[in-house]
Amino acid sequence: MLCVTAAAWKLLSMESVRWAFPCGIWSPSRVEWLLCARCVQPEEKHRIGQFVLTRDAKAAMVGRLLIRKLIAEKLQIPWNKILLQRTAKGKPFLADGIPAQQPNFNFNVSHHGDYAVLAAESELQVGVDIMKTDLPGVCHFTGSGSTEEFFRIMNRQFTEREWGSIKSMNNDRTRLDMFYRHWALKESFIKAIGVGLGFNLQQIEFEVSPKNMEIGKIYKETKMWLDGEQEEWSFEEVMLDNNHHVAVALGEAGRLQQHNSENEKVAGIPFTVLTFEDLVASAVSMAPEDPDYWDNFQSKQEVPFRQRSNAT
Description:
Layout: H1 6-12, E1 17-21, H2 30-38, H3 42-49, H4 54-74, E2 84-86, E3 92-94, E4 106-112, E5 115-121, E6 126-132, H5 147-153, H6 160-167, H7 172-193, E7 204-207, E8 223-226, E9 229-230, E10 234-239, E11 244-250, H8 256-259, H9 262-267, E12 272-273, H10 276-279, H11 291-298, H12 305-311
Parallel strand pairs: 1-12
Antiparallel strand pairs: 1-5, 2-3, 4-5, 6-11, 7-8, 8-9, 10-11
Helix pairs in contact: 2-11, 3-4, 6-7
C-alpha cells in the first residue's frame, strides 16, 4: 500500500478540486486517442470501446482520465499503480492506495452535453452533476417535441413547489433551464450518497436561489429538504456557459468553516477548464499501442441519427 506523508496530506486536505473538460469540441487525433487507450485500465478501455457513439466514448474516456489525474496529482499515487473499481451501484472508487489513518478523500464525475466534470473533497461527501439545456425536439430524456409534453412526461420527478419554480419562468427556454438546474441538483445529491437508481426524486425538494444565474459565477444559496425536513447540505451551482448547469452537493455542511479557507467559503470554488495537455500531464502508458482501437473509434457516429436530423 502506498503512503502519503502526514505533512503532504495536511496540504492536500485543504484543497478542493473542480475540473471541467470540453468533450464537445475535442476531436481527438489518432495519436491522442491511442495515448488515452494506453493510459486506462484494460477493462475501462474495453468498456469505452463498446460505446456506439463517439460522443459517449469521449466522455467516458475523459471521466476515467480525470479520476486518474486527480489521484496521481493530489494523492501522489503513481498513475500506473492506481487501481479503480466500481461499487455495486456503479460509482468509481480507488481500491487500496490511501492509508486508513488519512481523511476520507471523495470524488465524483459527471458528463452531459459538451462537458465532463469532476469534483473532489478531502473530508466532505461530494456529488457532482452537469446538465445541458436541450431544446424541444432533442430533449435528452424523451425526445419530446414540445416543452409542455416533456414536462407532462417528467411530472413525477419534481414536487409541486419545484414545478411552481420551473413554470414561473418567462418562456420555454428559461423554464427548460430551470428544469435542468433542478435535475442537476437532485442528481448531485443522489450521487453524493451513492444510492443509484430507484430513489424517489420527490423525497428531495429544492428551493433554488437566486432564480437567475450569471455564467461563471458560483452560487451557494440553494436549500434542500429531505422527506420534509431541511438538510444541512451545501450546494454549489455554476453555469459553465449558456447551456450547461453544474451542481456540486457537499455533505456535512457544518464542517465547511474548518474545511475551506474563508475566501473559498464565501465565494465558492470555480471550475478549471482543462486542455487535453492538462488532462494527460501526469499520464503513464500502461499497455502497448492498439491501432485497432482507433479504427473502432473512427467507425462510430458522433450523435444519434435523430439528433443530427433535428439539428439540420
